[in-house]
Design a protein that fits this description.
By secondary structure, this protein is α/β, with parallel strands linked by helices. Helix content is 38%, strand content 12%. The protein has helices at 34-49, 79-93, 111-116, 133-145, 161-173, 197-213, 231-240, 259-266, 280-298, and strands spanning 66-71, 99-103, 120-126, 149-153, 186-191, 219-223, 248-252. The strands form 2 sheets. It has a 4-stranded parallel sheet with strand order 2-1-3-4, sandwiched between helices. Strand 1, helix 2 (79-93) and strand 2 form a beta-alpha-beta unit. Helix 2 packs across helix 9. The chain starts with 33 loop residues before the first helix and ends in a 14-residue tail after the last helix.
Length: 312
């Protein structure tokens, strides 16, 4: 009988020893402080929110529409400094509001050049006192030619009680005094003049406001060109009514010195008021017209957010 090889069971090696480690385990990160944790969460949220588009969300406006003051323009050496002084007062009353200047003729910068350099929204504020050809035709044409802008045109500076306030103060500065004596005082309100009936109507209303401001002193409107009566005609009318020419003043319904303003002042038999220039009431009126234009654009009685109003 062939002996067979007996099967030998494999011996149990027992519990295995742990394998040796080739390197120590990596250390756990240190816990974050509260400030660092908040910083990382904010950064992550900001990164993710950049990819989200919110329906109906309006990005805040970049700033208020620019105010573009529109002056007529003059070769008179005192014209440009007077207008710039007025705009300096406007900027001081409304810090942060972009204020620019453009001229219709005779001076720089021209209005079309000013508008060409701007972007976004603008409000044109005419430094004029009635609804003549410049306001009704030239300003709309200039804005239409600047197709890259969104804009509106404010009302002219007159008529308004703030304008009467400025005219009144300039008369007092010139030495005009109202009094009850015989042959009492009177005023000729000298304006540039226009063939537009609405413009002469505006000057008539300015004269009424000034008369009320002066306590009932007669104020007769007169014009340097294009309309009647002239300043000499108005002076003769007042003299015929018994007013002493020496107590008859000429009020200058002009923003700045110029040929018309100088001519009218030279005709005055009594006090001759200076142009309005940088009178504080005129600066407030410029901002008031700007705010009015913005309110009309929104269809409400209040200016859009970010447009502060100025006391009138």
């Amino acid at each position: 009988m062939t002996a067979s090889t007996a099967h030998q069971p494999t011996p149990d090696p027992g519990p295995s020893a742990p394998a040796p480690l080739s390197a120590p385990p990596a250390a756990y990160p240190a816990p974050l402080g509260s400030a660092e944790l908040a910083h990382r969460i904010t950064a992550e949220l900001s990164s993710r929110l950049r990819t989200v588009r919110l329906h109906g969300f309006r990005r805040p406006a970049a700033g208020p529409p620019a105010l573009v003051a529109v002056a007529h323009g003059s070769r008179h050496p005192g014209a440009a400094p007077a207008v710039r002084a007025l705009l300096a007062r406007v900027r001081a009353l409304r810090p942060g509001l972009p204020v620019h200047l453009g001229h219709l003729e005779l001076d720089r910068p021209p209005l079309d050049g000013t508008l060409a350099a701007l972007r976004g929204e603008v409000v044109l504020v005419p430094l004029l006192f009635g609804r003549g050809y410049h306001v009704s035709h030239d300003l709309p044409a200039a804005l239409a030619a600047a197709g890259h802008l969104t804009g509106r045109i404010a009302a002219p500076l007159g008529p308004h009680p703030l304008l009467a306030e400025a005219l009144h103060d300039r008369l007092l500065e010139a030495g005009f005094r109202a009094g009850p004596q015989d042959g009492g005082p009177a005023v000729v309100l000298a304006a540039a003049g226009s063939r537009a009936p609405r413009s002469t109507g505006d000057t008539t209303r300015i004269a009424r406001l000034l008369a009320a401001r002066l306590g009932g002193v007669p104020v007769v409107p007169a014009y340097a060109s294009a309309a009647a009566p002239t300043v000499p005609d108005a002076l003769r009318t007042l003299a015929a009514r018994g007013h002493d020419p020496r107590r008859t003043a000429v009020a200058a319904c002009f923003t700045a010195p110029g040929r018309f303003a100088d001519r009218c002042a030279a005709l005055a038999p009594g006090p001759a008021a200076a142009p309005l220039g940088d009178h504080p009431a005129l600066a407030r009126l410029v901002l008031h017209r700007y705010d009015q234009a913005l309110c009309a654009a929104t269809g409400s009685g209040t200016a859009p957010t970010g447009a502060a109003t100025v006391a009138v």
